Amino acid sequence: MNVKELLDQHGIRYVENHKDVRQGFLGLACAFCNHSGYYLGVNIHKGYGSCWACGWHSLADILVACAGLPLRDAIAAAKGVARLPAAPRLLGKLKPPAGVG
User: Fold this and answer.
1) How does pLDDT run across 27-50, given as a tens digit for each residue?
2) Cross-strand bridge partners of residue 56
3) At what angle do helices 59-67 and 71-79 cross, to 10 degrees?
4) Intervals of the chain under pLDDT 50
5) pLDDT at 89 (0 to 100)
6) CA distance 46 to 82
7) Is the sign of the CA dihedral 22, 7, 3, 76 positive or negative?
8) pTM, full prediction
9) Rounded-to-integer distance, Cα 44 and Cα 60, Å
10) Angle subtended at Cα 7 by Cα 56 and Cα 42, rounded to the nearest 5 degrees
11) Which helix (H) or strand (E) element contains residue 57?
12) What is the C-alpha separation between 9 and 1, in angstroms, rounded?
């Protein structure tokens, strides 16, 4: 099971394509600080969350806050999550166009 499937299984709503959501993240309404909008981003590659307003949260904490799971069950569910491989990083030299200093 991956992060998306875990959130789906527990009825946690998220968005994938939104102006406030980076690639590789799922956007959730933050249950920790109650900001409107999708401030809580869940990293699908590493399985953690980070809110623009209140900071880092573990996947287990997100399950407790958003799905109402007991902490023990949330920790067990989060441990079973497969992390998706990250997209390869492009390495090389930047060659600016002619005339750019």
Assistant:
1) 999 999 988 788 999 999 888 999
2) 50
3) 130
4) none
5) 74
6) 9
7) positive
8) 0.78
9) 14
10) 25
11) strand 55-58
12) 10
